[in-house]
Structures are given as C-alpha cells and as structure tokens.
C-alpha cells in the first residue's frame, strides 16, 4: 500500500483552506509573541534602566567576522525564503507525493523506505506538517539574522544544523548521493547539506574566524569536493560526455530535459529547454567545460592562495549562476519549489571561505575594560547555576540589559517552537487527521431518525438483529466480499477505527452488511474477514442473508447496487452510518475511500472513531 | 605546510576517493543469472486464453479491454451447440481482472474460478448448470495458481480440486465451505514418483472421467511426464510413457483437461532450443494414447483449445494454428490465425473450427472454410467493458 500519496489534488480546496487558516492563526500567534516580547522589553527598561556588564559591552562591541556574517545573514535569508516557499498552497498535499517521493525514486531501497516513512508521516498530518515547515524555517531564518553572537546565535545554528539535516535526509533523500547520476550540476550533495554545513560553521568560536586557517580548511574541503565532482563528471560510462547516445538523450541532456519539463514560468522553461538542445548537440563540449571548471576551481581552492582563490571564486560564481539558471531552473518556481537549490548556498560557502582566508584584523573594542577578544565573556550577566539565572529578578535584569534584536531572536526561537510543537503533538497520535477524509468525501450528513431494523446472519452463522445491539453505538457499512477496490479499504478503516476507540471499544459495534446477492454465503464473509484481518475481532459483525432478506436492508438505508456486465464487479455506493445507543441514526458519512493509502485509511478511521465517540457522548 | 592546510588537502583527497568509489554507482552490473534448475522449459503458454467444448456447448476465455492493469477483464464466451452465434457469458458480480479458470465441463454445466486481483486476496468460485443463465457461488478457494488448469471439477461440479499460488492442491465439494489440503508441490516432489520426475512445479489439476484426482507439473528429469494420482494412501506416477524420441526432452504439462468424458493432456517437450508438442489421451482403462510429436522449433504455444471428442488445437507464436482431431489423428496446420491481442481457436462439437480474436472491447469470430484454406469473418461481439470499474 503506497504511503506517500494521499490521493488528493495538490490544490484540494479543503486542505488549502485549512492550511491557510492554520497559517493565519499561527501567524497571529507569532506576531503576538513578538509584540509581547517587545512590550516586555520596553516596560522592563522603563522600570529598570539598562545596566550591561563590561563583558557584554565588550562582546557587543566586538565586530563579527565578515565570513561568519556572510554565512549568518546569507543562510538566514535563505531559510526565510524557504519558509515562504513552504507556505505555497500546494505544499500540504503536494510535498510528499510530488517533491519527496520523486526525489527518492532513483535511490536505493533503504533510502526509499526511510523517505517513505517521512512522507507517510507528513501525509498523516498534512496541515500540521506543512505549517511546521513554514514556521520552523522562518523562525530559524529570523533567529539567525537577529542573533549575531553569543549563546542565542549558537542555539540558532544548532537548530539550523538539525533541521537542515532533517530536510537533507527526508526531503532530499540525502541529496541523491546514493542515487545514480550524481552530479554537482544538478545539485549534489543537496542544498540542505550546505545549510547544515554553514550552520555548523557558525558554531565555531569567534577566535577561529580571526585566522586564515579556518578559510584554508573551508576552501580545502570545498576544493576537494569540487575536484571529486569533476572526477564524477568526467568518469567514463556515466553518460555525461554524450549529448545523445543511440538516439536517446545522454545523462546530462536527460537531466536538463527533465528540469525543463518541471512546472515553472514559460520563459524559464524555454531557456532550460534551449540549453537541453545545446547539451544534446554539444554534449562533449558542455561536459568538458564543466569538468575543467570544477577541477580548476577545486584545485585552486585546495591550494589555498588568496589571490588565486578570488579568481576561482569569480569563476565559480559565473559558472554556478549559469548552472543555476540553465540546469537547475532556479529551483524554487512552479508552485512546489522548496528552495533555490544548491548553487546559491554553495556560492555563499565559497564566499565565506574566501573571506575567512583573508580575515580582517579584529577591531579594538569600543569599551576598554573586559576580557580579551580571544576569550569573550559569556552573554549572560553572571556565570552560575541555571536556576539562579532563571530567577525572575535575574531574568528581568537580563531583559533590561538586552538589545532589542536579542529579545526578538528569542521570539524567533518561539516561532520555531510554534511550528514544531503542534507537529510533535500530532505525531504523538498514531491516527491520521480526519481532514483527509473530509477532503475526499466532504462533511457528514446529520440524521435524526430511527435506524431501520434488520435481522441477518453473521460470519459465524449466528442470527443478529440491530435491536439486539441497542445500548451500544453502531458503525454500520455495506460491503461486497468479492469487491476488488473500495470494500477492503473500508473494512480496513473500520478495523483501525476499532483500535482507535480504545477504552470505548466494548461500547461500539462495527457492523457490515453484505452487498453481493450472488456471493452471499457465510464462507465468503469468512474469506473476506481472513484477508482483511478481521477474523476473531469480537466487535466486528459481517452480516448476510438471502437476497430476499438483504434487499430490504439495502433499500431502507438507501444503498444502491447494480450488476454490471463484462467481468465488472458489483457497482455500489459507499456509505457509513452512525447509530446511537438509542437506535437512532445520527449521521451518514459518504465513505468512498479514495486511493486507500495508509494516510487516507487512517484518516477515515479517525473520522469513524470520532463519530462513535460523539454518538456515545450524546447518549 | 600548516596543519590546517594538511587537513584541507586530506579532506579533498577523501572526497576524491569517495567520488572515485561512487563513480560506479548506478552503472549496471553483470547480467542476472538463475540456476538451471529454476528455469522452466521455454515456450510456455503466453496468454491465458483458451477454449474448451462439450457436446452441448463450447466456452472460450480471452482477456479484453486494456492490455494489462485494472482495465483488463477476462471474458467468458459461450457457443451453444446448434446455435450460430457466440455470446458473452462472463459470470456476474465479480471482477475478472485476475483471469478466469474453467472446470467441470459437462453438457451445459460449468464451474469458473477467478484469480485474485487488486485488493481481492482469494478466488471466488461460481457454478452454472444451464450454460450461464443462472449462477451460484461455490466455496471460495485460496488464491488460484496462475495457470489455466488451477481449478477442476467432477462432471456436474460435485467435487472441486484447486491448485493455489503456493503450490498446494486442495479439494472440497461444491456445497462445502472449507477446502481440504491434499498435497503440496514440495511434498509431492519428495515422493518416489516426484523424485523420478524431478518435479519442479505443479501446473495443472484435473479429475478423470471416473472422478480420480490428477495433478500435473514440470519434470526436471528428461523424458518423464509429470502426471500423478493418489492411490493406496500415496501419490503415484500416472503419466504416459513417452516415445524414445523425447527421452532427452524436459516435459511440461501445459494443459490437463477433462471434457465430455475425455481427459486430455497437452505436453511440451523441450530439448535445448527445440520444442515439440504432444497430446495424450487417458483411456477408461487408465492407459494413455500418445499423438505424434509436433515440432514447433523455437516457437511457443500461445493459446490452446480442446474439443468434445478429444480434439486439440494450439495457436503458436508463429501465428499458425495446429489442430489434432483426436486420438489417431495427425496435426494439421491452419492458415495464419487472424490478428488480435489474444487469439484462440475453438473446436465446437459440430466439427466447425473457429478462431476468436479479442482486441479491446471487440471479439471477432472467424471460421475456417471447408478447404481449411482461409479464415472467414463470421461474427463480431461488442463487449461493454466497464473501464474504470476496478480502479
């Protein structure tokens, strides 16, 4: 059973509407959070004037290294852009099926399993997951921008490293490094890995940014990577040298052609399509340029000479930006783009590496007293136990002495939590959100009438009447035991609903009535139960009878069925009824199960379980 | 060189090494190989299309609609003896996406089984005593094996025999609710008869006209036909002795069919890249009559047909039909059969030879002229395929 695809259109109005509403609510909460923090900051400073320590003043006065600044601001802005992209309407439904799953398709099976798990997780809670991605990325971006230094900056970097790795593993399938056709031109080793690497560099103590050695290591690693990518690009047999082979597009041609087919503005598609034709016609020359550029820039970076590195950086920038447009199609247009792909982050890393190779001398602190720049004092007022630091008086003192940007960075951390906490809470439940079922079949129809009675035979051959179930809530449906599509899925939904009912289970009966007039023997019900894992479940009753007994039941509940010709299964409507303990019908659910993914089955089960809970609550 | 520069170069070399080791990623490895013992004989039936006839009716099964997937439906057609037109006779209220099995042909009685498809995990069985005008459900079977003769019934359909996907044969009565396991492929292979045959796979089940259970399969030992029957508490070889000319060939039982009181086996004998087709008829005394081998070279058998009086036909991948009129007869080649996605020959009791060609939702019936020189279009049946009903 596929797990990724919820079977819904990416623009499903129910999901999109719920996504926008959730974003609005959480956005208001974020604004309120920032407003409250600002208010508190103003009030505290009014009440208790600022009294920063000498250490803080020294810390504040020490300028941030340009290389670190490029990484912090550059990747902060990228995280904000990515957060905004995650707010595109199609993300809630489309990200698992149209972004994550295709990315993993060419990776090994174990990667696909891992990614499939993540996609299924997202599909179970599309609204919470999509809003979490928005707020976590926006929060990290703002946090990085506002927290220039100190522990808050380090915490922002740690959050960025962690979330970047999550995106790299689950969203980018490890950047495709385990898949065939790995190429720097198409985004190896994955943009999110660059985000994480940059954030990890932000964790370096300030003194490391004052030496050339950090720049040498950064450019050395980057150079080694680029040389490795050049080797991969040049490796015989991988198809990069051929624009076309036996009439078929070569590896790079096929990659560019697939990019041109992505959803994007027509002008950009035309450009990428044109470049695909260039690669097809001049595959060898294009690959030669790529190999030479990658190898040349990589070797210069490995050498670590500043003047040469500057030239190499310019070459890399020109080459990278050309690739960004011509091969990677900018990466973020088309409605489901999640980031601007790998070139911009790669260039930011290279620029930071170059700047770190040519560090500016540390400026003299504006305030003389205080520790040496090499060992700045911690950002907190006084070292000590956390319990002491968290005392109200201490907090007020900290707040009063903090800069507004620092206070707002705390708000940004709160925004991260604003996205993460609801998702974590949703994940605590094994059941999918009912919104998938509502999106597939709409809302239920409330009823208030006595449920038509019947007496039929269950799968064990016992006579069962609806009246005999009085005192319990009844979830009733109609199933064809030889159905090849919907009925097995509906049975799974009922089975899972029974599990979700937990403690209420002994107060709810799960009942199905046979719909097939030909295959109406008890042996068919038993075969169906065995295949669906329903045999032996005590509160599951699959009822049947002769056609003369069954037809009035179908009619009374408005269930239409039709014998279709030419080897087609019985045509019938899908519905579920909720009957209260007093024997009255409470609601009818349209129960067409859609594609039957794990997420949709679970979502319908949640809807059923909720309906049963309400029925019991009304009694 | 500073420590840091060394570290940078080391990182570069490591990355380079990784790239070199990764360069082979995605390149194709050597060709997949399979052990010879696991390789079935070549030239197996490719399409599960076939026809079988009694003195009163002829049935044909053909896949129609899409060429695969949930819009491919197997259809049952009926030609009642004495009537000129074929008619759609597919059992109702069951999706036939997984293929239809016929069994228990006697007069106008028929038993059908449906191979599971999509979310259906077992095989519904249905019976008709009047040529498909009224159907009743039989006991649901385990997943029927993907062979044309996975289901058998005694004449009239009183007892049923099934071969499931796991290679286990089971039996029941048509009024029963549970199937009784008889023997598994593995257990049969370990009997003396199974070892003598070198049984690799069960391919068919049947009842003899006397109601004796028969199982058949592929033999790994050359020159041995793997047909088995239960007696004296064990399974014993019941297959025909093959002529010395086939002593070096591996034998597969393509079909094992009982119709109108006649059990007929169609055997494929494979030796290297060459294959022969042999028909064998089981007599009332338990002795087999063997036909002359039909050399088909490297061709394969696409579809098969069985007539009421022991006649046998096959459509080969070459496009020709081959017809054997019965014991003592000789193979007669037909003109190229008409084109179609699935084509089978049918051998009604009146001696007529039909070719049924199915494409999409249209079945075209062709008849072989008196001089057996050409096929003449006789009828077109438009089948209302319910596209989308199983998806």
Task: Give your account of this protein's structure.
The complex is a heterodimer of chains A (619) and B (391). Chain A has 22 helices and twelve strands. Chain A is α+β, with helices and mostly antiparallel strands and 619 residues long. Chain A folds into three domains: 1-208 and 394-428, no CATH class; 212-358, no CATH class; 435-618, 3-Layer(aba) Sandwich (Glutaredoxin), CATH 3.40.30.10. In chain A, the strands form four sheets. In chain A, strands 3-12-11-6-7-8 form a six-stranded mixed sheet, with helices on both faces. In chain A, a hairpin with a 4-residue loop joins strand 11 (575-579) and strand 12 (584-590). In chain A, helix 3 (66-86) packs antiparallel against helix 6 (126-146) and helix 18 (435-441) crosses helix 22. The longest helix of chain A has 35 residues, at 13-47. Residues 1-5 and 366-382 of chain A have low confidence and may be disordered. Chain B has 391 residues and is mainly β. Chain B has one domain (40-382): YVTN repeat-like/Quinoprotein amine dehydrogenase (Methylamine Dehydrogenase, Chain H). Chain B has helices spanning 3-22, 185-189, 192-197, and strands at 50-53, 57-65, 72-80, 87-88, 100-106, 109-114, 125-128, 136-137, 151-153, 159-163, 168-173, 180-184, 199-207, 213-219, 226-231, 234-237, 250-259, 262-271, 274-282, 288-290, 294-297, 301-306, 312-316, 320-324, 331-336, 342-346, 354-359, 362-368, 375-382. An eight-stranded mixed sheet of chain B has the order 4-3-2-1-22-23-24-25, with no helix packed on it. In chain B, strands 17, 18, 19, 20 and 21 form a five-stranded antiparallel sheet that branches. A four-stranded antiparallel sheet of chain B has the order 5-6-7-8, with no helix packed on it. In chain B, a hairpin with a 3-residue loop joins strand 1 and strand 2. Residues 1-46 of chain B have low confidence and may be disordered. Chains A and B meet through helix 9, helix 19 and helix 20 of A and helix 1, strand 3 and strand 8 of B.
């Amino acid at each position: 059973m596929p797990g990724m695809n919820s079977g819904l259109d990416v623009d499903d109005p129910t999901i999109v509407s719920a996504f926008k509403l959730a974003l609005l609510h959480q956005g208001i909460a974020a604004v309120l959070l920032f407003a409250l923090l600002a208010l508190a900051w103003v009030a505290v400073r009014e009440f208790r004037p600022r009294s920063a320590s000498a250490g803080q003043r020294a810390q504040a006065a020490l300028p941030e290294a340009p290389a670190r600044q490029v990484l912090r601001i550059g990747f902060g802005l990228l995280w904000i852009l990515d957060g905004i992209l995650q707010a595109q309407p199609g993300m809630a439904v489309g990200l698992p099926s149209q972004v994550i799953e295709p990315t993993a398709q060419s990776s090994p099976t174990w990667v696909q399993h891992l990614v499939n798990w993540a996609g299924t997780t997202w599909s179970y809670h599309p609204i919470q997951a999509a809003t979490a991605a928005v707020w976590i990325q926006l929060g990290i971006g703002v946090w990085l921008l506002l927290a220039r230094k100190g522990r808050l900056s380090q915490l922002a970097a740690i959050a960025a490293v962690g979330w970047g790795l999550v995106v790299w593993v689950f969203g980018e399938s490890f950047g495709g490094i385990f898949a065939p056709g790995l190429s720097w031109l198409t985004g190896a080793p994955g943009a999110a890995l660059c985000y994480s690497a940059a954030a990890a560099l932000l964790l370096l103590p300030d003194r490391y940014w004052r030496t050339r050695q950090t720049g040498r290591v950064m450019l050395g690693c980057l150079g080694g990577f680029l040389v490795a990518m050049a080797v991969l690009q040049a490796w015989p047999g991988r198809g990069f040298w051929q624009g076309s082979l036996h009439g078929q597009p070569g590896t790079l041609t096929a990659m560019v052609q697939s990019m041109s087919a992505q959803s994007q503005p027509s002008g950009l598609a035309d450009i990428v399509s044109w470049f695909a034709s260039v690669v097809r016609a001049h595959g060898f020359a294009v690959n030669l340029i790529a190999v030479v550029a990658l190898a040349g820039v990589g070797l210069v970076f490995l050498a670590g000479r500043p003047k040469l590195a500057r030239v190499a950086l310019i070459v890399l920038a020109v080459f990278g930006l050309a690739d960004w447009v011509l091969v990677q199609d900018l990466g973020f247009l088309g409605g489901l783009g999640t980031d601007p792909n790998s070139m911009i982050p790669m260039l930011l890393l290279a620029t930071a590496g170059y700047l770190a190779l040519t560090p500016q001398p540390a400026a003299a602190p504006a305030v003389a007293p205080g520790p040496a720049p090499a060992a700045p004092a911690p950002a907190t007022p006084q070292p000590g136990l956390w319990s002491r630091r968290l005392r109200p008086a201490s907090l007020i003192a900290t707040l009063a002495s903090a800069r507004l940007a620092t206070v707002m960075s705390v708000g940004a951390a709160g925004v991260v939590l604003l996205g993460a906490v609801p998702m974590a809470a949703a994940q605590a439940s094994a059941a999918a959100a009912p919104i998938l079922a509502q999106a597939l079949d709409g809302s239920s129809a409330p009823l208030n009438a006595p449920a038509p009675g019947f007496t039929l035979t269950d799968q064990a051959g016992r006579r069962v009447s609806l009246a005999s179930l009085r005192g319990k809530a009844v979830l009733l449906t109609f199933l064809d035991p030889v159905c090849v599509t919907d009925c097995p899925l509906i049975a799974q939904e009922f089975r899972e609903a029974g599990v979700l009912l937990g403690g209420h289970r002994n107060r709810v009966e799960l009942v199905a009535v046979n719909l097939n007039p030909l295959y109406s023997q008890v042996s068919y019900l038993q075969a169906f139960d065995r295949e669906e894992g329903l045999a032996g479940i005590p509160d599951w009753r699959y009822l049947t009878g002769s056609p003369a007994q069954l037809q009035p039941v179908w009619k009374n509940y408005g269930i239409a069925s039709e014998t279709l010709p030419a080897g087609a299964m019985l045509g019938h409507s899908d519905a579920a009824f909720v009957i209260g303990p007093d024997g009255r019908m409470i609601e009818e659910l349209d129960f067409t199960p859609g594609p039957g993914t794990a997420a949709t089955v679970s979502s319908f089960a949640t809807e059923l379980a909720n309906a049963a809970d309400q029925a019991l609550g009304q009694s | 060189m500073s420590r840091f520069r060394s570290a940078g170069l080391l990182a570069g070399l490591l990355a380079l090494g990784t790239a070199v080791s990764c360069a082979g990623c995605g390149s194709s490895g050597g060709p997949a190989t399979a052990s010879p013992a696991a390789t079935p004989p070549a030239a197996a039936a490719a399409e599960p299309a076939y026809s079988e006839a009694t003195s009163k009716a002829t049935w044909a099964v053909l896949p129609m609609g899409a060429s695969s997937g949930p819009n491919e439906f197997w259809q049952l057609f009926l030609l009642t003896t004495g009537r000129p037109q074929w008619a759609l006779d597919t059992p109702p209220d069951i999706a036939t996406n997984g293929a239809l099995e016929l069994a228990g042909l006697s007069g106008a009685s028929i038993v059908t089984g449906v191979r599971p498809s999509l979310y259906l995990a077992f095989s519904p069985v249905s019976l008709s005593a009047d040529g498909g005008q009224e159907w009743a459900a039989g006991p649901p079977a385990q997943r029927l094996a993907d062979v044309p003769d996975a289901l058998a019934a005694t004449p009239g359909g009183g007892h049923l025999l099934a071969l499931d996907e796991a290679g286990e044969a089971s039996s029941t009565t048509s009024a029963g609710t549970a199937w009784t396991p008889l023997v598994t492929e593995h257990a049969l292979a370990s009997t003396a008869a199974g070892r003598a045959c070198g049984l690799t796979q069960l391919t068919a089940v049947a009842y003899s006209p006397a109601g004796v259970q028969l199982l058949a399969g592929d033999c790994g030992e050359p020159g041995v036909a793997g047909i088995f029957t239960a007696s004296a508490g064990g399974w014993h070889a019941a297959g025909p002795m093959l002529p010395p000319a086939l002593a070096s060939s591996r034998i597969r039982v393509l079909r094992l069919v009982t119709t109108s009181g006649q059990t007929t086996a169609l055997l494929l004998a494979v030796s290297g890249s060459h294959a022969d087709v042999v028909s064998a008829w089981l007599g009332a005394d338990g002795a087999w009559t063997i036909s002359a081998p039909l050399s088909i070279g490297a061709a394969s058998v696409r579809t098969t047909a069985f007539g009421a009086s022991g006649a046998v036909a096959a459509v080969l991948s070459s496009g020709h039909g081959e017809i054997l009129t019965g014991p003592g007869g000789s193979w007669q080649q037909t003109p190229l059969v008409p084109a179609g996605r699935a084509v089978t020959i049918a051998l009604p009791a009146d001696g007529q030879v039909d070719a049924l060609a199915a494409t999409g939702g249209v079945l075209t019936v062709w008849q072989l002229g008196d001089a057996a020189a050409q096929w003449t279009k006789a009828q077109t049946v438009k089948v209302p395929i319910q596209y989308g009903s199983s998806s």
